[in-house]
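Inputs:
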Amino acid sequence: MQADVAIVGAGIVGAACARALARAGMSVVIVDRGAPAAATSASGEGNLLVSDKAPGPELDLALLASAHWPRLAAELADELGDSFPAVEYERKGGVVVATTEAGAGPLRDFARGQAEVGVETEDLSVAEALELEPHLNPEITAAVHYPQDAQVQPVIAAEALLASARRSGARILPHREVVGALRDAAGRITGIRTAAEEIHAGAVVVAAGPWSGAVAESLGAELPVHPRRGMVLVTARMHQKVFHKVYDGDYFGATQSADAALQTSSVVESTPGGTVLIGSSRQQIGFDDRLDVAVLAAVARKALRLFPFLETTPVIRAYGGFRPYIPDHLPVIGEDHRHPGLWYATGHEGAGIGLAGVTGELIGALLTGAEPAIDPGPFSPSRPSLAAHLTPTPEGAA
Amino acid sequence: MSSVLVIGAGPAGLAAAVAASDAGARVTLLDSGDGLGGQYWRHLPAQRPSRNEARLHHGWAAFERLRSRIGGDDAIEVVTEAQVWAIETAESVTAQVLVGPADAAGREARALTADAIVLAPGAHDRTLPFPGWHLPGVFSAGAAQALAKGERIAVGRRAVVAGAGPFLLPVAQSLTAAGATVLGVFEAARPPALAKGWLSKPWKLFGTAHKGRELAGYLAHHLVHRVPYRLGRAVVEARGDGRVEEVVIARVDAEWAPVPGTERTLAADAVCVSHGFTPRLELPIAAGCAIGPDRFVRVDPDQRTSVDGVYAAGEITGIGGVDAALVEGRIAGHRAAGGAKSAMDSARRRRAATTDLARRIEAAHGIRPGWTSWLRDDTVVCRCEEVPYARLRSVAEATEQHAMRSVKLTTRAGLGICQARMCGRTVEALIGADTSRGADTSDRRPLAAPIRLGDLAELPTTPKRGSA
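Outputs:
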């Protein structure tokens, strides 16, 4: 089999890369070891957040995504028609609160720093916060409104991107595990081998989320991606009582932390289906997916601090997944400087749904030689902050 | 003294508890209901005893023996209204239990573990969708049976019982006893399938003579009450203004596809439908037990699952009815308590005979693929989330998906309050899902029952595993 680009991973990031490349006229093959849109993409909440990101390259990417998603959602709806389910894009806004006196100052400072780089923020009094969220615990100490925070239904979004990619000619091959790389005499990666076939390609893009490290290894390369487990609770349906993405400021600590121990912060929001999603935990325990009810209890406890009315609400489902975590907290988007022909689009941790679209566009631009919408340097596998986490290159290698 | 935790107090769980105690173990017996007996021996509560139970239940004497034996046994702790809502496997296999009335606040939380666990959660009946099945007046046969047995309430005055399997007969009997007129029992299986299931190698049925007597009793009942028992017929539609007023019955072919032109309409105010049983697999899957390609828990001749110290008995190992459940429970309880293998030789032989019965039921009454042709575009497949057949089909086609995980999230089928207990296997059949791995199917539910957020928040929050 022959293609311009072979993509490993049919989650939302691989789907977005495939769509961008196929629409630019390239022939694309996606392989996935399981079913499409069934792993990390099907295990999250669908956050498109700017509020949780400190000024820096990831926030720049998130702001780009925030402007890109409305266009993307409209394009997908146009292209796929009414018979395809809507991606449920909603710019519902976020309300971030502090629940302690000590947390109030840092939350406001954080928001001020974000505002300086172009994030829309609105400092709220407690009364104003209660106007936006009438059922919020009135004991909160500070609140900031982020109108740009948005939500999308992640599995529908991934399926829509895949369907769109297919319409532009991309081929999707589920249940194919990559077992090795094809290389030319100079060592350049020229494709992949699965148990069933060889796929010759001008470029290989690894978009396998938390499994990207293992895929890279099977291709003879190395990428420090680690799984971070997250659990989400789903309540029974109710009349809408939560109107924004509401979370406590501890979330920043959890997302920016390298601590392996359990961390939780409550992120509470309603879905168009009428349920309330309550996330989420972050825990580095490898690919161990065994249930630990203490983790659920910790998530529940924090959610009740925000919305005491939830106390009598039944939780009907709990689901968990693994997020791709990179030690320097930035996604890896670009070509591996040590393995020409091998590209990465992974490591978005909990932000992969929101950042998928712009990641796909960036990969598309870099591979077709178009002008990228954002400086790709900070996301390159060769960036200095990642070097310490890579095995030193042997003397004389590229 | 070893300890055994038994989950489920139906026939299998009761037999397991007694056998484990006999073998010298300390036993904890849990059931989510408010009494012993499970669905099979569901009866009026102790505050309202009835002298009719023996007439209404098969094997009531066996139940009374087990119940009084357990009541007088200090080594068996019985905990009713005990809902196992999760099973953890991080350190040991631990059952997370809430004790108290199902909808009450502040149920007592207990984390139970033991040297061995016997899982006997049973099954619930499976109903295939048909046009109008969401109307009030349509009941799963199991729900109708539970109301008749547990409350002496008939779900209607003129009732139709339909579907497939021997379970239809006791349902018709209970409805009649509760005061309903049963217009007919409509069994989808046709005579050739019944002959294949029930008449091949008839000598093997001697091993399950009790079951034969039970079936004969139901058939006698049908003669006495002049309830017609029609083979090769299915309910293909329920109609009515706001509730069931009439039912359309059609002849079906060997694959269960309705034969055009054979439709017949009956005026009825209740339809009780069952097309077999779905084993309750969420607890065994949560415990890590291997599930076979037939979608039952895999067990060895000692009822051991693939997980050390975890045994399974009753309907989760194969739909074999009460005789199978009793003997499997007995073996499981005895072995879980460390009892000698040889003591169970005759029990194992009896169990082999009941396995044969389960095969017969499947051969005679197992669901055939032609049923999908009685669906219409607007037939609701998932009742909780009101997902019509056409949408399920068109979204699965547009996404080229056969995997439940994606289809569930793109259509919402199976995401509602029943968590796909009602529609999961139907949706899997309609999208052609690969169900060979239990953990990837609609049977997997890490939360085995709803839990209030407040109850969850009361539990300890120190994770079992935390550091890298």
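Remarks. Residues 375-440 of chain B form one domain. The first strand of chain B starts at residue 3 and ends at 7.
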